[in-house]
Design goal:
The protein is α+β, with helices and mostly antiparallel strands and 88 residues long. The chain has a domain of 55 residues: Urease, subunit C, domain 1. Helices cover 20% and strands 40% of the residues. The chain is built from 1 helix and 4 strands. The protein has a 4-stranded mixed beta sheet, with no helix packed on it. Strand 1 and strand 2 form a beta hairpin. 8% of the residues are buried.
Length: 88
């Protein structure tokens, strides 16, 4: 019985460990430039901003031209657009 368990562990365990390493695809970043951001805190609106969104999260927010745009994305100019952010 001990030899069977040892053989089972040697053969099957590595297979189970490798099989569980699935690659989860990352969503392609969305980038909007030249956006006016209103943060709903009462602060003044911030014009000419860049917003980077990955999945369902804003990952980067900053002045247009100063934000690094991820290489897997394309920037969409959103001049004359407004973005309102919510704070949780």
């Amino acid at each position: 019985m001990g030899k069977i368990l040892a053989l089972f562990s040697i053969i099957l365990l590595p297979t189970l460990l490798v099989a569980d390493r699935r690659t989860i695809p990352q969503p392609k970043p969305l980038v909007f430039t030249e956006v006016t951001v209103i943060d709903a805190t009462g602060a003044p609106a911030k014009p000419d901003m860049t917003v980077v969104i990955i999945g369902n999260r804003i990952t980067t927010l900053g002045k247009s031209g100063k934000v690094k745009i991820p290489c897997q994305s394309s920037a969409t100019p959103a001049a004359n657009s407004t973005s309102a952010t919510a704070h949780h």
